[in-house]
Please model this.
Amino acid sequence: IQMETMQLATGLNWTRDMIRSESLGHHNRTQMGFYLEGSSSISEPVKLSGGLALYHFDDYGWELSSSLDLGLEITRKLNWFASVGRSYRLPTFTELHYNSPANMGNPDLDPEGVVSMETGLKWHHPGLRLSVAGFYRHGTDQIDWVRQNADDPWKVMNISEVDVMGSEVKLLILPDHYFSWIPLERIDLSYTYLDSDYSVVGLESKYIAAYLEHQAQLQVSHPLFYGLSCHWTFRYEDRVETRSLFLGDLRLALGVINCQIWLNINNLTDKNYDSVTGIPMPGRMWSVGIKTTI
Model:
């Protein structure tokens, strides 16, 4: 629906998830509901948008998610934005039903609930984009795998409330906008900081306690020859309760007529590391693909 100063969209949805597994068993989950989204220009410099979705799950009943976004054009190059929203996450079939000598699922789990808020500034100039934001997230009934002693199996539980505060800075540079002789198409820089306040009294946490406190990332894109382009990604990660590390990825892409052929190399230095304690990540990994447009 489109009006002079407002746009509305709505729809219905029905989904059925099924799993047939020797380790998890046979389970189904059906959801049905509707969503409503809208946007409006209250006045020339102010923009407002929002939405809500109400769904019924046959195993958890009704769940509501919603969001509200506000934007203000301070100057032609500077914008302020703010948002608030509520979301949820249902337990997965693995969290509900997986059982092994080292891990125990829990069929009595409740959905997680999250209320989040964010505000920040965006500045743009030909060849440059800069954004700075701060955010806060309050989570209830957070799901995690926990245990009391190192010899105990991990058991999944709704353990606590979690408050997360953080900030993020992003900078985009298009070098060839200023210096045509520089063989770089794009440079992306970003940094994110998180501070999590949680309470897991008397229990060892598998995931919530091992959050990513600092993350810095550099992405560089540049052409090579004969339509071949190169995309580098370098990132620094400092996760609580684990060691910090540097990682690098490479993507080569070649456009041929209406196709794109690409080669990805993840973890270029073949570094051994765990995303969280006890869960090793792959070493150097190669993948090749092709995408075509008909």
Q: What stands out?
A: The longest strand covers residues 128-147.
